[in-house]
TrEMBL record:
Residues 319-500 form the ELMO domain. This is Engulfment and cell motility protein 1. Involved in cytoskeletal rearrangements required for phagocytosis of apoptotic cells and cell motility. Acts in association with DOCK1 and CRK. Was initially proposed to be required in complex with DOCK1 to activate Rac Rho small GTPases. May enhance the guanine nucleotide exchange factor (GEF) activity of DOCK1. Coiled coil: none annotated. Gene3D superfamilies: 6.10.250.810, Leucine-rich Repeat Variant, Pleckstrin-homology domain (PH domain)/Phosphotyrosine-binding domain (PTB), SH3 Domains. Pfam families: ELMO_ARM (PF11841), ELMO_CED12 (PF04727), PH_12 (PF16457). It comes from the Eukaryota.
């Protein structure tokens, strides 16, 4: 008989004691369960204790989230959030630099938990941290020359804790002083600053701008676009991402009249060229967050064109008509001014009409009427004038060449420019708030799953991130553009296992070749290497240290250590990796976190990896999962599967080109009335 649904079986750890296996009755108060656990280990004052998850999150168990406990969950008995908060509040004010540093590191880690965060904030912890940043840094900077690593870590942990605490939305951003804003801005404005401090300072500035109009004005006084752009010219993609995020935030919160001024500054600073050179064409892949921030920047700048796009030309406005006169002058009167032309007014009008026809306007007499339709409105005329002034030779050549063509071969500059501008406005969705479209799609897709509770709905929304929505759209677009008939879908389903087996064998072959990995300590990357490879029979992992990076494969006999595949218990990635929880892990950037994976074996043993790049990370995690009989879930596998499946389908259908494939199989013909046509070949 299965146990009641209110009973969950868990393991509970306590330092220095054997874990307890016990059944938790979810109907009992949490305090009663904690008392029962404490009594089992003879621990007094159970109100000073709490339960928390023993995984990488270390989140406290509360009455609100206790329903998330599942059978087999491992919990840990630990100090209560209130006690922990009180102790850390005292420890971070220690006179000992080492004790203060260790306390700030613990605070940065624990602040991710909203339960702890609430307790620490109740002790006015946010104010304490801001005071340490405002006034404490000067005192520590005096020691910076002799204690630079300690100072950098201390400030980094302080800012990390501040960011984590503020992310819970418990404290309003409007409460911070100008001195604090100036201090954070000074970290961003410094030419040489610790990377982790710069990351967190940029994150704080972005949040200030987005969450408070008053703070936007104060931040805008301290930070200029010119001071942010040098951070885009570095090599750290996370710093570049945060920098563009701050630019986007300033752009988004700026008054309408200020946005165009900012766009002009960005153009003067050659922002597009810098992004193209140092971000898009850099020798590394663009991560999802960077792609999103670039997308937001593009939307914000394109939307500045909406006003001109929706403005009709006023045929009576002389300034607007002068633009059309300028287009004619550049094309036909580059040597002389129209005001100096001879002849009667009628001849001049006739000449203008002829020239406007050559320019490709629909209305030859009054071309201003061509710009009364919105979109594209005056934006089309702006584009034409820009092209005529900045690419004058090409402009004149296009106009003159089109003047000599037959009507059926003509490509009139005026009409083409207007239609092209209109088409680009539609494609680039100028004036549309595309972010709201994504939000709408997130809500609609979450609702189609018919969530039974608000918590489930929230969970679905979290899973449908911006990146995931883009992947879904791309997948759906591919399905629509490719083959959607039933026979093709059945063919895909039939050959997919073959493709997956091919990918699996490729992954295992790459593991047999092996890979050289770098070793990392808590502070910085070191030029020490180790090599790992799979035995040809796929039963043993061979690994060992190397003095230098190898040129080619490393023989099995030179690798001293072995790990039988049969001993592997699990493969974990990212924040779940043991080496991502160790000292100094907070300074690791997101790129390192995305390349981390670990092999867990025996009871408490692990083999920790930092892949050299995303491709090797996918190869190894796929290969290890394949060895354990699990699905290969990496982005690389999905891309390979899509590519190979599409290629295989197209190859098999080459002979059916231009042949309509029916949705249903043809009917089986009736049996013949006789079989006289059958004969024996013998």
């Amino acid at each position: 008989m299965p146990p009641p649904s209110d009973i969950v079986k868990v393991a509970i750890e306590w330092p220095g004691a054997y874990p307890k296996l016990m059944e938790i009755d979810q109907k009992k108060p949490l305090s009663a369960i904690i008392k029962e656990v404490c009594d089992g280990w003879s621990l007094a004052n159970h109100e000073y204790f709490a339960l928390q998850h023993a995984d990488s999150s270390n989140f406290y168990i509360t009455e609100k989230n206790r329903n998330e406990i599942k059978n087999g969950t491992i919990l840990r008995l630990t100090t209560s959030p209130a006690q922990n908060a009180q102790q850390l509040h005292e420890r971070i004010q220690s006179s000992s630099m080492d004790a203060k540093l260790e306390a700030l590191k613990d605070l940065a880690s624990l602040s991710r938990d909203v339960t702890f965060a609430q307790e620490f904030i109740n002790l006015d912890g946010i104010s304490l941290l801001t005071q340490m940043v405002e006034s404490g840094t000067e005192r520590y900077q005096k020691l910076q020359k002799i204690m630079k690593p300690c100072f950098g870590d201390m400030l980094s942990f302080t800012l990390t804790a501040f960011v984590e605490l503020m992310d819970h939305g418990i404290v309003s951003w409007d409460t911070f002083s100008v001195a604090f804003i100036k201090k954070i801005a000074s970290f961003v404005n410094k030419s040489a600053i610790d990377i982790s401090i710069l990351q967190r300072s940029l994150a704080i500035l972005e949040s200030m701008v987005l969450n408070s109009h008053d703070l936007y004005q104060k931040v805008a006084q301290e930070i200029t676009i010119g001071q942010l752009i040098p951070h885009l010219q570095g090599t750290d993609q996370e710093i570049q991402t945060y920098t563009i995020a701050v630019i986007n935030a300033l752009f988004l919160k700026a008054p309408d009249e200020r946005r165009q001024e900012m766009a002009n500054i960005l153009a003067q600073k050659q922002l597009r060229y810098i992004i193209l050179t140092h971000v898009i064409r850099a020798q590394r892949a663009i991560n999802n967050e960077m792609a999103h921030q670039l997308y937001v920047l593009q939307v914000l700048t394109f939307n500045l064109l909406e006003d001109r796009m929706m403005t009709k030309m006023d045929p009576q406005d002389q300034a607007q008509r002068d633009i059309i006169f300028e287009l004619r002058r550049i094309a036909f009167d580059a040597e002389s001014e129209p005001n100096n032309s001879s002849g009667s007014m009628e001849k001049r009008k006739s000449m203008y009409t002829r020239d406007y026809k050559k320019l490709g306007f629909i209305n030859h007499v009054n071309p201003a009427m061509d710009f009364t339709q919105t979109p594209p409105g005056m934006l089309a005329l702006d584009n034409m004038l820009y092209f005529a002034k900045h690419h004058q030779d090409a402009y004149i050549r296009i106009v003159l060449e089109n003047s000599s063509r037959e009507d059926k071969h003509e490509c009139p500059f005026g009409r083409s420019s207007i239609e092209l501008t209109k088409m680009l406005c539609e494609i680039l969705k100028v004036g549309e708030l595309r972010v709201m479209q994504v939000v709408k799609e997130q809500v609609m897709r979450a609702l189609t799953t018919k969530p039974s509770s608000l918590d489930q709905f929230k969970s679905k929304l979290q899973n449908l991130s911006y990146t995931e929505i883009l992947k879904i759209r791309q997948s759906e677009r591919m399905n629509q553009e490719d083959f959607q008939s039933r026979p093709i879908l059945e063919l895909k389903e039939k050959i997919q296992p073959e493709i997956l087996e091919l990918i699996k064998q490729q992954r295992l072959n790459r593991l047999v070749e092996g890979t050289c990995f770098r070793k990392l300590n808590a502070r910085r990357r070191q030029d020490k290497f180790w090599y790992c490879r799979l035995s040809p029979n796929h039963k043993v992992l061979h690994y060992g240290d190397l003095e230098e990076s190898p040129q080619g494969e490393v023989p099995h006999d030179s690798l001293q250590d072995k790990l039988p595949v049969a001993d592997i218990k699990a493969v974990v990635t990212g924040k779940d990796c043991p080496h991502m929880k160790e000292k100094g892990a907070l300074k690791q950037n997101k790129e390192v976190l995305e390349l981390a994976f670990s092999i867990l074996y025996d009871s408490n043993c692990q083999l920790n990896f930092i892949a050299p790049d995303k491709h090797e990370y996918c190869i190894w995690t796929d290969g290890l999962n394949a060895l354990l009989g699990k699905d290969m879930m990496s982005d690389l596998t999905r891309n390979d599967l899509d590519t190979l499946l599409s290629m295989e389908i197209k190859l098999r259908l080459l002979d059916l080109e231009n042949i309509q494939i029916p949705d249903a199989p043809p009917p089986i013909p009736k049996e013949p009335s006789n079989y006289d046509f059958v004969y024996d070949c013998n």
